[in-house]
Amino acid sequence: MSSPRRVLVLYGSETGNAQDVAERIVREAKARHFSPIVMPMDAYDIRFLPGEQRVVFVTSTTGQGDEPRNMKSFWRFLLRKSLAATSLTTVSYAVFGLGDSGYQKYNVTAKKLFRRLEGLGANAIQMLGLGDDQHPLGYEAALNPWLGNLWKVMREACPLPIDLKDPTDQEIANAPLPHSRFIVDIVEPPSSTSERPRFERLTEAQQALRLAVAAADASDAGTSFSLEDYNLKQRCRGCVYDGIVVENKSLTSQDAVKEVRHLEFKPQEACDLAYEAGDILGIIPLAVDVNCPRLLSLIGRLGMDPEGWVRVYPSSTPEMKHSAPSVQVKYLIAGAIDIDSASPRRYFFEVMSHFAGSSLEQERLQYFASAEGAVDLYKYNQRERRTVFEFFDDFPSLSPSMAWFLQVAPSLNPRYYSISSSPFDTASTGAVHITVAAVAWTTPMKRQRKGLCSAWLASLRVGDKVQYTIENGSITLPPQDVPLILVGPGTGIAPFRSFTRERLRQIQVTRSTEGHEKSTWAPTLIVFGCRDAHRDYLYKNEWESVGGDLALTGASGLGGVVVAFSRMQDKKYYVQDCIKDESKRIWALLESGAKVYVAGSAEKMPAAVYDAFRNVVQTQGSLSDDESARYMIRLGTSGRYFVDAW
Predict the structure, then answer these.
(1) Are residues 208 and 337 in the same domain?
(2) Could you tell me the pTM of the whole model?
(3) Which residues form the FAD-binding FR-type domain (predicted)?
(4) For a disulfide at 365, which of 353, 389, 453, 577, Cβ 3.0-4.6 Å?
């Protein structure tokens, strides 16, 4: 029988935010004398769920309202029709979702999970919490009051004995640090390391920290950890390709407002690059020079020798002391920690306050980590996109331990790009293509920023090494008899280049096997947007060569390529304006069963495009406001309207 104070915390996380929230819940639960267990939903044996008393779920929403990868099997089990409506009547639960209200399917995974648990008889002890990235304070604006009420409700259900009391928020903030989840042992360097390439040593450092994290997660979840099982799971997750750059060229003119580049990668060793049109490529930018002065200074602040070697393993799994791989310190920090791009999270400030040598710095860090300091933390950190390097510049008295730094500093995570080649392209040449815009902006404090990965990719030369994964995207190419409307301004055109090249190849095969007269194919309408025909018309020659092809226009002539040039006339002209101007053609395509795909910036474009389609539906279909709204909803629910925004 489980402890009466047991709290199971399950999360579904794609980028790590939901996991961060889950781990915060665990820390606060421990401080309040509960016995929490935390793990990804898919790591939990769902057959034991009816025996749990209290479960807190944290989940994000990805893609087209999809659940994160590490909760998919858990969710599929919950959806079984054979489950009775009384399956979870003894379970009390709470759900917090992380989402972005700029998306149409805002927090839909958390909403569906909340309703499904309710439908299986579980008892909600807290209203559904919905964190919104669009809020100035991010998801914590909703999380803080939601957590405050959660602890109140859980305390009423599970009173403390007389000799214990709940700590105040201030007491929790000022509590001594527990032991770090990692141990960092200094070890002797292995022999024959000087000749090994920088790239290999950086990727091995990433893998070493991932191994330690996976082992620590298993320990936190109360499950055993096997190195053999871990390696098997890594292989099952998909291939990691060691590749080389075979092409890296600019698609824009030198005077374009934003540079966009076309890159092609080939595996170093011959292998099948299996993917579908619409899939994505993940790449970790190994951009930091291991000998740069800022990195060496930071490592010194951690009390370590940059040239030294260490083993990192969980403090709860001391038996890994000798099996954990050894890595050189400077490669570990440069290859596994995002020190020059990502902003630290609130818990980072809380932990660092314990290592400040100055009382003023300690007070400032404690204030930033408090509920009262949330607004100022946002201004200092998130809005300014403060990096770890800059943080240490601002707090010169800090000398944290290496173990705690590895635990709370932001990990160097993959950046994902839509694949812009077709599977046939890759089968023919062995190369996979991506289309990358240079990311650059000015912060509120007038700091000039560049995207870590896009700047690194732009600097690569033919023959340079990269490591990448290929993963399922949120959109897929339908059969060739389905009409398509593809709306992709800027680099949003990347997945649709893949779609178009693959569909043209499919039709070419059909032509050769069935003959031109017997072949039938549906039209594809591409709506592209850029500033200027001469500066940033991406893949201009390709679109001009296929725009009038019967394979694209279809027998109806409804397909083709139309372009919105936003800066070539007095009034700005965007893809949404183009959609309205092509309303008759678009309405005919919609009425013939076309599927709509929209890709590109997540800021204002998706909503403006959606409104433009609704305008087409209303005007061309002679429908009322309510009727056009219902028409658009049906497009979404029937799988005919997709948005892939970033």
Answers:
(1) yes
(2) 0.89
(3) 238-478
(4) 353
